[in-house]
Amino acid sequence: MLASDCINMALQSLGYLQRAGVVANPSELARGLQVFANMVDTSNTSRANIFCEVENQFPTVNQQQTYSWGTGGTWNAPRPLRVTQANLILPTSPVIRRPMAIWDRSQWAGIVLQGIYTWPDGMYCDYAETSLDGKTPAANVYLEPIPDGVYQVETYSWQANVAPATLATPIAFPPGYQEFWIGGLAIRLASMHRLPVPQSVLDTYREARQGIARINAAQACPRLATDAALDTSGNGLYNWLTGLRD
Questions:
Q1: How far, rounded to the nearest angstrom, does the alpha carbon of residue 51 sit from its chain's CA centroid?
Q2: CB contact set of 220 (below 8 Å; sequence gap of 6+)
Q3: Three-state helix/strand/coil letters over the chain
Q4: How buried is residue 169: exposed, middle or buried, by Cβ count under 10 Å (0-12/13-18/19+)?
Q5: More exposed terminus of the chain, fewer Cβ within 10 Å: N or C?
Q6: What is the CA radius of gyration of the chain?
Q7: Phi, psi for residue 232 in degrees, rounded to 5
Q8: What is the pTM assigned to this prediction?
Q9: What average pLDDT score do residues 186-197 get?
């Protein structure tokens, strides 16, 4: 399905295109594409709409604290919407993943001494829109302590829903999103054409929205667990370095 198909189906659901085979004219399609792109862009502000968290691995640079995260940046990948988890991969045999803290602005600002050099145990991402080439955005990532060598940082972050660039852009999303996009698009286009939104469209959109919210919330929901350091069910001592019980 193409972006133009979604626009036509949204208008058909409103009763705007009533005869079989009738499609929106070029100006209506152009306006519909902009509305569609705005809607997809806005959807990225809510975790309930995000269907994928992408995993990346980035190298640190010896004695370098700040990294640009964006296409063409120090960490060459699309700018993250939100970092949810990170691990430091220690160069050991076997490899050990050491969980890293994800600090917010106030927590990062509260670190008094930031001049220590060893392996980093946390990061702060400012989610900036710094331009790398005049058009590609990038965020800045700060590691603390400052890496004293080359390590791998494993990150998990929201993968943005990509807005259609043209009418011929294929719309490829997981099951459950088709009625969500078409219903949402119909609601937005209705006001532009001064049309009422049929109750059937509202009901279908609400059901689709609730469905994807349930799926995505299940993926993001943290699991309750006992801290390993407090778990006395096993034997041996807890190793704070490896996160394992000896």
A1: 8
A2: 47, 53, 84
A3: CEHHHHHHHHHHHCCCCCCCCCCCCHHHHHHHHHHHHHHHHHHCCCHHHCCCEEEEEEECCCCCCEEEECCCCCECCCCCCCEEEEEEEECCCCCEEEEEEEECHHHHHCCCCCCCECCCCEEEECCCCEECCCCCEEEEEEEECECCCCCEEEEEEECCCCCCCCCCCECCCCCCCHHHHHHHHHHHHHHHCCCCCCHHHHHHHHHHHHHHHHHHHHHHCCCCCCCHHHCCCCCCCEECCCCEEC
A4: middle
A5: C
A6: 23
A7: -105, 15
A8: 0.73
A9: 92
Residue 3 and residue 192: Cα distance in Å, rounded?
A: 18
β-pairing verdict for 152-158 and 53-59: antiparallel
- Which amino acid, residue 183? G
Structure tokens belonging to residue 66: 């700040």
